[in-house]
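Model it.
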Amino acid sequence: MKNLSSVLVVLDKPKHAQTALARAKELQAKSGCHLSLAAFCWHPMVKSKDVFDIHQRRAIKKAIVGERRDWLRGLVLDSKLSAADVSPEVVWTDDIADWVTRASATDCDLVVKSVHHSQTLLHTTLDWQLLRACPTPIWLAAHRIPAVRPAGQRGGYSQRLISKTRTASTGP
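Modeled.
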């Protein structure tokens, strides 16, 4: 695989764990790549011409984007990422797959996104949409820790493995 210079990180909603960001930080620490963080927001009320006039819709959009921008700024600060190594962006769209596909086609070596499972038959997840359409390699990062049963001492191998796995997945 070629050296990574730019990674696009598709962030989850604020209420979710940011697994993709954690994995991207690991890549950044090892490769020195630049991280482009994309936080998405959209609300159908902004399209509702029957209920709100144009000024109200603009105000709603501005408030939602501002709230997401504040959250993203806090996330970057909490993640202890250098301003030179990261480009945060808030994107207003209801078609995340299309935006990521177009953005990754320009100057991106890898897209990192948290994996999400769908339990419905009629809904195609964003993961599948990206796997089908995105021209850039995608890493669907999972938050799971491998199960290890520490049965027996064997030199403490199982305990060391559990400890290393936890450290790798959650940080030191």
